[in-house]
Specification:
The complex is a heterodimer. Chain A contains 26 helices and 31 strands. Chain A is of the alpha+beta class. A seven-stranded mixed beta sheet of chain A has the order 8-10-6-17-14-15-16, sandwiched between helices. The radius of gyration of chain A is 28 Å and the shape is globular. By secondary structure, chain B is of the alpha+beta class. Helix content of chain B is about 30%, strand content about 25%. In chain B, the strands form four sheets. Chain B has a five-stranded antiparallel beta sheet with strand order 4-5-10-6-7. In chain B, strands 11-12-13-14 form a four-stranded antiparallel beta sheet, sandwiched between helices. In chain B, strands 1-3-2 form a three-stranded parallel beta sheet, with no helix packed on it. Chain B is globular. The chains are: A alpha+beta, B alpha+beta. At the A-B interface, strand 4, helix 5, helix 9 and helix 26 of A face helix 1, helix 5 and helix 11 of B.
């Protein structure tokens, strides 16, 4: 009655309560992924006797006597299953963590199922792609199966070069953080964390006696075992950007879900049992849950025990982590000149990243006595720095590696598992693994910062801004990781994109006894842009002007000073290129065409109860984070005449690996397939600040381009010596150097260099400055049912100014993914915290992220620009597509219903109730003016 | 997820085997989805061998262990096409697929999850509760010592996640009576997201124990913490305002469910709206002078693959 896995009977039998996924992974089928562990995401989909099931909710013993097929067993030898080939051909993935489940699900489809993907793919969640590429992959043309792509790929700048990891991803062979075969880490121990049930409490005692008696438990760590050194889980080039307010294990807990103790055991089950056996005595302290209350005198001071200067907390006694007060010009005078003033308080909610791979790491001590950490991180080099600081280790005694990372979105710009896993490994001298559950992701990692934004904005009748005033309060939760950065960045480009002589900002980032907020795609901008772009729309409506026309009059043009909270522009931000005007036009034209399409198809009347509207919003972002962002790349010729480039930056679906290969290939006159990228390992290069702030292309890519250009010169110089000619005559071609009719292949040159003791290698570095600006403009047409609150997105358009687009397909994918994630944040998602500070939305069924059924196919357009600062004219384009989406949607709903929704998410129930309440006031929607534009 | 506290799996259908720390295991999709830190044994119904679905002149018998996939396939089964539909005419079967599609869970999960499991989980949005209550289903419950009792499904669920099962009792089956299946059905559902979790799900039926009868039964689920049924006899069919008044009486404010899947105020207003749409569809059909009934939400009118051939 053995379980047959991919045709071979398993040698072991499952445990009584084991789910099939864990069993399959134990048997070496690491392509079967754990995304949610609750049956919601479908990443673990396998076939049992030919039927697709979610293996995480399939009792393993039920598979006895049955035949299981995993993604590893789908291909016929080296011949991919048609669906695998289609996912490869259409690049139906980004991070790839959902891909095995997608492929296994789609492989079970018949034609009828393929014809209804919203229904049949709703059990497969993807957080990266926005589903367009997945839909194309699932419905790929069967006749092309197993044929080489028709188009020859020159593999350089501007081509849709496929991701190098594509084949590994569609076959389940790509290795994510925990996909380490068990024989490689003998004696692996597992860690589970006991977490606080109290929002604010002092730990009086922790009794670990019973826990240590649990069979299999090896050790229990408490605050007594943790270094005194305070740090921040946030990771930046300069650790001083964030407050030192966190301990690995603290004797005070400040939110429900904070670590209290760590149990390390021979199995996950024993570690879990160990956490249940720990007895903790708490002194419950008064807690505060809203930033407004937390700033009041007498409120409990979460970090009142810390010194403002040494911990870098603005006012610990008032829970203020960071604050900003600025006034350019004179807003009072500006408002006095205004013909119309809009005042509204906007609120954005807690949003979770929901990267499909949860936070996880493995730490061990290697044979050279070095601490090794394998982790799901966007910033392996910064993780190393933090570990060195915490454990007082020199950098050469610590190596941090990221495998392929299953999604980030900012969530992995934090140290949330590595510190405690390393602590245990250092003490126990055995490998220790810590993997978060999906519930821990929701309750105990980080969220987007909730913002409360009091906006006051004035404009003249002829359409010019006179004053902008913002009172901003951000809720950073129990710890200040990213609190200053998100607040400052949020108040930056969102304001700087508009010309206005009078701008005033008062902003506070405030501690509360809730789950910490951290870095999230957009880094404060999405929240501020929601308020400001909603406000611009209201001003336009107020003075009776088309909102796009109003924006055109007030947005910065190339050469205008970009000012937000300082009277002088950022010293290193320039218009390396400018495409905002193009983006505005591209979106406006597309919306016009869309409206015409509906009219021609006779669909412009959606029926009784339905009202139609359109809305737009724009956004600007600096292409690189401020205060230094460093990258180092090392490039060499390989013996077979191809190239290898070592880079620091991690790959988590952002596609930078492909971009590196393309940039290098362009400089070396070859194709990307001949450039091997080795990455995200602190042993490979000197330093890399990491993949955040959209820096993967414009910083790390620039370093790689520099290394490749330098290598090209070295190759030509060396060849000139061999060919006894001058360098200028030596032309680097694909795989060879040619000079006046004589060719030397790179293989020959490599051998010659070896003999001569010369290394054909080069290095490149980039420090992230000067910086440029990138732009995104989004437009929506929506239909709203006034009787039920249902919302239909009729058209979604985004135009992006990404400079020279290195890889159009990938860049489009980044934009589509950003739109989908932003639609989730605009319409559905909210990490709900109850009155006691407890996160109640702790599984994916309570936290709805967009499914295939929720996401429209967006039209994506690119401005034609070339940037002076980015590599080969490219600009960043990863987090910014997210930023204009929510306000564009809110503006479209405003246009359709006449109602301003200033609070996210704009869920259907809230839409309905607002319409009902307005109708009750007005008796009729017709009275609300702007009405439909369908 | 792994249920790491489970020490044994015991194949049994005998409630006498149940003890503290045991859970009945049907498809496992809820138990393994939520996990547990207290359960010690799983009482496995996987080898119970209960026939999943039996169709006969008196109606349909759904074993608690019938999977959603089996139920979804029912309208296409020869026994229904050749026998039930032709002989008895069961338009009530139109409700089966819309209710299955109301699962937020994927069709893949339907290969394991069961009708009984959905009832026993007793969530307001449980679509098998909607279906079985809407069709006046009766649940048969086994107790220790060979005892058994029956409860209308509409009364089986008593609150959010709560039902009438005593510890150790086992849901054996659900009987859907032919009289209910023979009635004309209407369905309405709204969710906060496309194809998402039900926020409001109403089922209406027009018919009665005897052919040609015109009694109206309206079953409210998802909007309320437990199912609520309104019954109108043939001689006392409501107009719009009478229906609204009946809902006023039957559903106190506090009974509207409050969670992330819909504000209670929205659920309340949508209950009235969908109820009226159903009333209009069943009582004022266009061929009798009524206007085409409005259809809010998804999955209705039903696709009828079986009927085309019948």
């Amino acid at each position: 009655m053995a379980i047959e896995i991919n045709g071979t009977p398993a040698s072991a039998a499952p445990l009584p309560g084991q789910c099939l996924r864990t069993f399959l992974r134990e048997q070496g089928n690491l392509g079967v992924k754990k995304g949610c562990d609750g049956g919601d995401c479908g990443a673990c989909t396998v076939h049992v006797d030919g039927k697709p099931v979610h293996s995480c909710i399939y009792p393993a013993f039920r598979a006895e006597g049955k035949s299981v097929t995993t993604v590893e067993g789908l291909a016929d030898g080296d011949v991919l299953h048609p669906v695998q080939q289609q996912f490869l051909d259409n690049q139906g993935f980004q991070c790839g963590f959902c891909t095995a489940g997608m492929v296994m699900t789609a492989a079970s489809f018949d034609d009828e199922q393929r014809a209804n993907l919203p229904r049949n793919l709703k059990g497969n969640l993807c957080r990266c792609t926005g589903y367009r590429a997945i839909g194309d992959a699932v419905c790929g043309n069967h006749s092309e199966t197993n044929q080489p792509p028709a188009k020859q790929q020159p593999g350089q700048l501007g081509d849709d070069v496929p991701a190098p990891a594509g084949r590994a991803i569609v076959t389940g062979k790509a290795r994510y953080t925990l996909d380490v075969p068990s024989e490689q880490l003998p004696g692996l121990l597992h860690m589970k964390l006991l977490r606080s049930p109290h929002a604010h409490a002092k730990i009086l005692s922790i009794d670990t006696t019973e826990a240590l008696k649990v069979p299999g438990v090896v050790a229990v760590f408490t605050h007594k075992d943790a270094p005194r050194q305070l740090f921040s889980t946030a990771q930046h080039e300069l650790y001083t950007d964030d407050p030192d307010d966190t301990r690995i294990l603290d004797d005070v807990v400040r939110f429900i879900g904070q670590r209290v103790a760590a149990v390390v055991a021979e199995s996950v089950a024993a570690a879990e049992a160990g956490t249940r056996a720990i007895a903790v005595e708490y002194e419950v302290l008064e807690a505060v849950f809203t930033p407004q209350e937390a700033m009041l005198p007498g409120a409990p001071a979460l970090h009142g025990d810390k010194d403002a200067e040494t911990a870098r907390i603005s006012r610990p006694d008032r829970n203020v982590v960071a604050e900003l007060h600025s006034e350019l010009g004179d807003v009072e005078a500006g408002f006095a000149r205004a013909d119309f003033i809009h005042e509204h308080t906007y609120r954005t909610q807690r949003v979770q990243h929901v990267a499909l791979e949860t936070h996880a790491s493995i730490a061990w001590i290697d044979d050279d006595e070095r601490l090794q950490v394998r982790t799901s991180s966007q910033v392996p080099f910064l993780v190393r720095r933090t570990l060195c600081r915490l454990f007082d280790l020199p950098e050469d005694r610590v190596r941090v590696v990221a495998g392929r990372v299953g999604g980030g979105f900012g969530s992995k710009q934090e140290v949330l598992t590595e510190d405690i896993a390393a602590l245990a490994a250092l003490k126990l001298r055995r490998p220790v693994q810590l993997e978060f559950t999906r519930t821990e992701q929701f309750t105990s990692t980080t969220t987007r910062h909730p913002f409360t934004i009091k906006l006051k904005a004035g404009a003249t009748r002829d359409g010019f801004l006179t004053a902008l005033q913002l009172d901003v309060i951000t809720n950073t939760g129990a710890y200040g990781n990213h609190a200053p950065g998100v607040m400052f960045h949020g108040c930056g480009e969102s304001l700087a994109v508009y010309k206005c002589d009078n701008k005033k900002v008062d902003a506070h980032s405030v501690y509360t006894n809730t789950v910490p907020a951290g870095a999230f795609r957009g880094y404060g901008l999405s929240q501020m842009i929601f308020a400001i772009e909603s406000g611009m729309d209201e001003l336009a409506v107020g003075i009776g002007m088309d909102p796009m026309e109003f924006r055109l009059r007030n947005m910065v043009r190339e050469g205008d000073e970009m000012l937000s909270t300082s009277p002088v522009p950022e010293e290193d931000v320039f218009y390396g290129s400018y495409g905002l005007d193009q983006c505005v036009k591209l979106v406006a034209d597309a919306l016009d065409r869309g409206r015409e399409r509906y009219r021609e198809a006779g669909l412009d009347d959606a029926g009784p109860d339905w009202v139609v509207g359109q809305g737009t919003a724009l956004s600007m972002i600096d292409t690189v984070p401020p205060r230094g962002h460093f990258a180092h790349s090392r490039m060499e010729v390989l013996p077979d005449g191809t190239f290898a480039v070592d880079v620091g930056t991690a790959e988590f679906g952002n596609g930078t690996t492909t971009v590196h290969a393309q940039l290098a290939a362009t400089a070396l006159s070859t194709s990307a397939s001949k450039v091997l990228v080795r990455q995200s390992d602190t042993d490979l290069v000197e330093h890399d600040t990491g993949a955040f702030g959209s820096s993967g292309t414009v910083v790390a890519g620039k370093a790689t381009l520099a290394a490749a250009e330098e290598l090209a010169i070295r190759i030509r110089s060396f060849a000139a010596g061999i060919l006894q000619t001058n360098v200028a005559s030596c032309v680097l071609e694909d795989g060879a150097v040619e000079s006046r009719g004589t060719r030397k292949t790179l293989t020959e040159l490599f051998e010659a260099a070896q003999e001569a003791g010369i290394e054909l290698a080069a290095e490149g570095r980039w420090g992230g400055t000067p910086r440029s600006v990138a732009f995104n403009v989004h437009g929506f047409r929506v239909a709203v049912n006034t009787g039920t609150g249902e919302l239909r997105i009729l058209q979604s358009v985004q135009a992006a100014d990404a400079g020279v687009v290195v890889n159009p397909r990938q860049c489009r994918g980044q934009i589509e993914g950003g739109i989908a994630q932003a639609i989730g944040a605009a319409l559905y998602e909210e990490v709900h915290v109850d009155d006691a500070g407890r996160v109640t939305t702790d599984i994916l069924r309570q936290y709805h992220i967009p499914t295939f059924a929720d996401v429209p196919r967006s039209e994506v357009y690119f401005a034609e620009t070339s940037d002076d600062m980015g590599p080969l004219g490219a600009k960043s384009m990863s987090e910014s597509p997210f930023n204009p989406v929510a306000p564009a949607l809110a503006n479209a709903i405003r246009n359709a219903t006449g109602i301003r929704f200033g609070e996210l998410p704009i869920s259907r129930d809230k839409i309905y109730l607002a319409i009902r309440n307005t109708q009750a006031k007005d008796h009729s929607l017709a009275g609300s003016g702007s009405g439909t534009r369908g | 997820m792994d249920m790491n506290t489970i020490e044994a799996v015991v194949p049994t259908t005998d409630p006498a085997d149940w003890r503290e720390g045991d859970a009945w295991l049907a498809g496992g999709t809820m138990l393994f989805s939520y996990g547990s830190a207290v359960l010690k044994r799983l009482l496995d119904l996987g080898s119970a061998g209960w026939p999943a679905i039996k169709v006969g002149p008196e109606g349909i018998e759904l074993a608690a262990t019938a999977t959603i996939a089996e139920l979804y396939a029912l309208p296409d089964q020869p026994v229904v096409r050749e026998y039930a539909v032709k002989e008895y005419g069961w338009p009530g079967l139109d409700l089966v697929r819309p209710c299955c599609d109301s699962f937020v869970a994927s069709f893949k999960v339907w290969n394991m999850s069961t009708v009984g499991g959905n009832l026993c989980t007793s969530l307001p949005a449980g679509p098998m509760i909607s279906l079985c209550a809407g069709l006046d289903g009766t649940a048969t419950i086994l107790g220790p010592g060979g005892s058994s009792r029956t409860v209308p499904v509409a009364e089986f669920v008593v609150g959010d996640g709560r039902n009438v099962l005593a510890p150790g009792e086992l849901l054996r089956s659900i009987h859907l009576p032919a009289s209910a299946l023979a009635s004309k059905a209407a369905f309405r559902r709204l969710s906060l997201s496309n194809l998402g979790r039900s926020g409001v799900l109403l089922i209406g039926r027009l018919g009665g124990p005897n052919a040609g009868e015109k009694a109206l039964v309206l079953t409210i689920t998802a909007a309320t913490r437990r199912p609520v049924q309104l019954r109108f006899t043939a001689g006392d069919l409501p107009d719009a305002s009478q229906l609204a008044a009946a809902i006023d009486d039957a559903v106190p404010e506090a009974l509207y469910h409050d969670d992330i899947h819909g504000l209670p105020e929205w659920r309340r207003d949508m209950t009235y709206r969908l109820a009226e749409e159903i009333r209009a569809e069943l009582l004022d059909p266009p061929n009798e002078g009524g206007a085409e009934a409005a259809v809010s939400g998804d999955f209705w009118p039903p696709q009828r693959p079986a009927r085309k051939e019948a």
